[in-house]
Amino acid sequence: MIISKAPTLTDAQLAEVEAIVGEFNCKIQVIYGAHRNIYAIIGDERSETMVNRILGLDYVDRVDRMESVYKLMDKRSDLSNHRIRVGTVDIGSEPLIIAGQCTIDPKNPQTFLETAAGVKEAGAHALRGGIWKPRTSPHSFQGTSASMGTLLEARERTGLPVIAEVMDESQLRIAVEARVDMLQVGTRNALNYTLLAEIGRATAEQGIPVLLKRGRHMGPVDEFISAAEYVVANGNPNVVFCPRGSMPALDGYRNHPDESITPLLKERSWAPVIADPSHSVGRARYVPAAALAAIAYGADGLIIESHVNPISGIGDDPKQSITPDVLAGIIRDVKAVWKLRSRFNE
Amino acid sequence: MIISKAPTLTDAQLAEVEAIVGEFNCKIQVIYGAHRNIYAIIGDERSETMVNRILGLDYVDRVDRMESVYKLMDKRSDLSNHRIRVGTVDIGSEPLIIAGQCTIDPKNPQTFLETAAGVKEAGAHALRGGIWKPRTSPHSFQGTSASMGTLLEARERTGLPVIAEVMDESQLRIAVEARVDMLQVGTRNALNYTLLAEIGRATAEQGIPVLLKRGRHMGPVDEFISAAEYVVANGNPNVVFCPRGSMPALDGYRNHPDESITPLLKERSWAPVIADPSHSVGRARYVPAAALAAIAYGADGLIIESHVNPISGIGDDPKQSITPDVLAGIIRDVKAVWKLRSRFNE
Amino acid sequence: MIISKAPTLTDAQLAEVEAIVGEFNCKIQVIYGAHRNIYAIIGDERSETMVNRILGLDYVDRVDRMESVYKLMDKRSDLSNHRIRVGTVDIGSEPLIIAGQCTIDPKNPQTFLETAAGVKEAGAHALRGGIWKPRTSPHSFQGTSASMGTLLEARERTGLPVIAEVMDESQLRIAVEARVDMLQVGTRNALNYTLLAEIGRATAEQGIPVLLKRGRHMGPVDEFISAAEYVVANGNPNVVFCPRGSMPALDGYRNHPDESITPLLKERSWAPVIADPSHSVGRARYVPAAALAAIAYGADGLIIESHVNPISGIGDDPKQSITPDVLAGIIRDVKAVWKLRSRFNE
Amino acid sequence: MIISKAPTLTDAQLAEVEAIVGEFNCKIQVIYGAHRNIYAIIGDERSETMVNRILGLDYVDRVDRMESVYKLMDKRSDLSNHRIRVGTVDIGSEPLIIAGQCTIDPKNPQTFLETAAGVKEAGAHALRGGIWKPRTSPHSFQGTSASMGTLLEARERTGLPVIAEVMDESQLRIAVEARVDMLQVGTRNALNYTLLAEIGRATAEQGIPVLLKRGRHMGPVDEFISAAEYVVANGNPNVVFCPRGSMPALDGYRNHPDESITPLLKERSWAPVIADPSHSVGRARYVPAAALAAIAYGADGLIIESHVNPISGIGDDPKQSITPDVLAGIIRDVKAVWKLRSRFNE
Known about the structure:
Chain A is an alpha/beta fold. Chain A is 36% helix and 16% strand.
C-alpha cells in the first residue's frame, strides 16, 4: 500500500510506479477515497527490492506492508478514517435504517410503492426491494429485471436511496446502469470472490456503497473482513458489513443471531456494520428485540424487512416482514439505545 | 397435574389421590407454590381410567394433561403466574443484577470481601462467589469448601443474598445447610438429571431459587425447559433460566452469545431469564455490550463476573471480570433499556 | 418434467410444447441423456390447465410433477438410471480414483508432469490439477490460466482425463474450450446459483461431468441436491456429488469429515458420490483412513490430493497431499472394501 | 507421576512419599496397572522442592511432570502399554463387539434373554442392556433397578460379560455390587466430573473397564481425554473412549457421525476406542456402513444396539436397533476391514 505525499499521484507518477511493480509481477490498484487515493500493490508485495525502489521515489511518503490477510480493511490502514454516506446519512453519525420488502412482487408493484411510502414515513433512510432472488430450487421464482423499474419509481416518489442485491455480473451491470444507491451481496455469495472483485471494479468510479452480508457459514471474523477486501482492493472503499445470522440455527429461529460479532469487526476494521435482524431471527415477532440488541452491540444501523401487508407478500415477507408501524417503534427505541451506548462502545 | 378446588389438599385428600395414582404406577409430587400447591402426577398420566377416577373426587377442580415434554414449566401450566424472589427483588419487576467473582481465592479471602462491598455499592442485588469449580483437568484447582465461610461472611457484611454453584450431592448438602440464597447449576451439569432431581428435592421446603445455566451444547429450546422440569417436578418451582453462550464459539469470543434465546424461552415457559454475558463473550471488554443486548432481548436480569482487581484473580476472573465501576455503568444503562423495551417484549 | 413416448421429441414437437408452456410463463429445458432426453418445465409447473394441454399431445407419455424442491435429481425421476462416465470408468461399476495436485505451481510445471505420471502408475483414473484458486485474501496467489497448458500436456502424456475447478464464467469458457474432461465447483461456490446454471448451459452439449463439492456450510441434504439441480435443469445431467468436510471442524482436522452423508444422498438422488478425504481431514497422515471410511459409507470413488514431493508444493499440497506410493496403497484397500460393502449398501 | 524402580512401592515407601507430598498440599493416588502401579501426584506438582525431595528417595526412578492437561492418559505416560481386557478379548488384538438392547423392557424380560442369545450367536463378545435411562423429560420412563436381575440372568445363560450405564452414585453402587463387567458413562454425563471421579474410586480395586461416551457437544479432543483422566487419576486405568456422534446433527442422522475422531485420540492417548454407530446415525439402516467406517478409521471395536425384534422394543430400539442377523454380517465385514487397515493405521 503506497501512501503518496500529495493526496493523489499524477498520471505520470502512477505510470512510473506501475512500471516498477510490473517488474515484480505486481499491479497497482487505485482506491478512490474521498480525501485521498490509496495505491494498493496487488500481488506479493514482500519483495524488499521492489519496496526499496518505490521508497526511492520522491513523491512517495511510505509503503505499508501489513501482516494481516487484509490490508485495506485493517483498522490501521490509511482508510481508517474513511466515512461512507448513504443518502443523507453519514454512517456513524446517526443510526442508518434501511427498510423495505424482501421481494418486489412483479404481479403487485403497487404494494411496493405503498411500502416505500410507509417506511419513509416511519423514518427509514433507504429503501430495500428485492429484484432477483437466490432460491434453493431452480424451479422457484427467481425474480425479474422488470422489478427494477418499480424500485426506481419508488425512489423517484419517495426520494429515498435504493438498495438492490446482485448475484452475478449481468445483474451488476443493470444495477450500476440504473445508478442504484447501494448494492447488496447476499450470504450465498459471501465467498464468491469473482463477483466481489467484479463489484469492486464496476463501482470503483461511482463509489456505490456495497452492503456485504456475512456468510451464514463463516467461521473466522478475518474471513469476513477478507471478503470485503476483495471489493476494496478492486477500487471501491465503500463497503459495509452486514451480520445476518449464522448456521446452525438456534432452535426456533431461522439462524443463530450474530449481531454480537459487531464489536469484533470494529476492533479489527474501520468499516461500518449494518445488522439484519429480519434474516437473523426469521420471524417478524422477534425482530424488534433483535434490532435493539444489534444497536446495543454497536451496530451503525439496521436493514429490516418491512411490508405494508406482510401476509400478502412473497418470498420471505409473510414470515419475517414487519409493518411500517412496528418499524416506527423500532426506530424510536434504536435512537434511545444509540445515545446510551456511546459510552461503552468506544 | 391435579388442580384442587382449594389452594391445597388436606393430608387425607392427598393420601386418597396417592392411593389412586399408585394403582397406575404413578406418584404424586407436591409443588409448593406461594399461593397454591400443585400436585403433579409423576409417571404415565395418560390413563383415562386413572384420570376419570381423580376427576370423580369432589375436591378436584380439573386434571391437566399437557402434550409437551414438560408440564409444570409450560407457560400454560398453573405455575404461569408464579413469581420468584431473590433478596429484595421480585424478579420481573426490575432488572435483577447478580455480581461477584468467578472464584473465591482461598489464599485471598479479603479481596472477595472487597469485591462484595464493591458490587453492592455499584447497585448489585445479589453476590456471586465460586466455591467449587468444575475443571477440565483433575489436576487443576477444584476449589475448597473453606470458601463457604468467606461467602457467608460477605453476606453478613453486605446484607446481599449469595449464590453458589453446586456440582454434586455433597456440595448441595453443604450449600443448603449454609442456607445460601440461590443455587447455581453449571453448564456441564445442565443434563445431569440425577443432580437436578436431587436439587429439586433438597430445596423443596426452603424453595431456594435455582439458577440453571444453559448447556453450552444444548440444541432444542425444549431440552433446556425440560431440564428445569426436573427441578420443579421434584418440588421446587423457583427455577431461573440462564443463557451463557453456546458452542461452537463465535471466533473471538469464548462462546457464541445466546442471549437471543430469551424470547423463545418466554414464549414457551413462565420462568424468568437471567443472562450471563461474562461467560458468553469471555472477555471483559465485550461484557457491557452483551449485557445490554440481553436486556434488549427481554432478559429479567444479569449475572456478571466482577472483581475489584481482575488481574489478580484466579479462575476466569483475569479474563472476563469487570470492575465494580464498569458494573455501575452497566446497571445504569440496563435500567434505561429496561424501560424502553416494555412495549415490544409483550 | 415431460416424458415423451419416443426417446426424443422432433423439432416440431418441441416447438409445440414450448408454445404451450410459454403461455403459462414457463420454458422448456432439454436435458440430454445418453438414452433419451428429458424435457423439464422451468417455472411454476403446477397449472392444471397447462399440464392437461400437454397431456393432450399424442407424442407425450406423461408429465411428472414432483413434490421435492428438486425434480430431475430425485431418485424417482426419469434420470434414475442415468450413468456417468469419466475416462474409462463407468461410475458405479468400480471405484473411480481422481488424484493430483491441489495446485499446479506455475514456477514448477515439471513437477506436475511427474505427479501425473506417478498417480497414473498408482492406479488413478483421472488427473486433478488446480489452475485457479479461490483464496481468502485478494493478495494471495490466485493461480494463472497459463497452467491450463500444463494440465493439457499432462493429459497428453498420460492419457488420463483431467479435471479443473472453475470459479466464474471466464474460467468456464477457457475450460470448456480446452475440452477438459471434468469440471469442479468448489465449496465456496456451492450456492452460487448463477455459476451453476451457467455451467449447466455451457456443458449441455458436450455433457462434461461436473463434480459439485458440498458447501462446507451446508445444512440440509436437500440443499446440496437442489444445487445440483441447477446444473441438470440447465441441460447437463452429468453431475457428481462431492462431500469434502463441513464446518465447524472437528478439533484436529481441517473440517468435520462428512463422508457419512453418502447414504443420505443415495437414498434421495441417483447421482454418484465421489468423496474428498484430503480436504475433509486436511492432513496427509489421516487421508488413508478417511478414504477407506468413505468407501465403507458407499462412495463411488475418491478425489485425493497427491504430489510427488508434497513438501515442495504450494497451496494445500504441503499439508494434505500424499505421495503416489501412499495412493497406491489406498487404491488397493479401496478395492477390497468395495467388494465387501456390496451387500449392505443396497 | 512417580515411577518407582520396583513395580510397586511397599506400604512403608508409599507412606513416606505421601508424607512428603502432603507438606505441599498434594496427595498420592495409586493407579493399579496390570504389570506395575503408577503413583500420581494429585494437586500442583510443579513445586521444585517437592519433586527434588521425592527424587532423593532411592526407590524412586523418576518423576514425570507432563505439560498436557492430562497426564496419565497421555500416550507418553507410563500407562502407554497398558492393555484392557473385556471378557475373552484383549482389546486391540481383535475387534471387540458389544451388542444388545438400548433398554431392557421390564415388562418383557424374556425378549432380552432372546436378544442375548442372538447376539452371542452372531459373534458378539459382550452384552449391552440399558437398565436406567437418562430421559429428556422427568415424566418419561427412567428405567428400573429390577432390570439388573434380567441382565445378570442373561450373563449367566450366555456367559457373555455385561455392560451397564450408570448415571449417579446409587446406580454405581448397585452395578459394582452386582459385579457387572463394564460400566458405561453416557454422553450427558461426559463432563460430570464428580461422577467420573467417583467411578474411578469405586472401581479402583476391581478395575472394571469404563466405557466413556464422548459428549455429543464436546469440542476439543483434549476435553474428552481429560474427562477420562478423572477416572484414571482416581484409581482405575481401564478406560475406553466411545465416539457416538456429535451435535449439531448431519441432516438425516441423529447426530453428526464422529468415528473420524479415532485417529486423533490414538495420536494423543494410549486408550482404546470402541465406536457407537447406533447412536451416531440413529437409524438401523445406516448402522452397517457406519460400523465399517469406524473400523476403517482405526476403532478397536464397536458397541451396537441389537434386538431380536426391534419394532417391539422400547427406548431407542425401534429406531436404531438391528437384528442379530444383520449384526452377524457386520461382524464378518468388520473382521475383513480390520485386516486391511493394519498397514495404514500404524
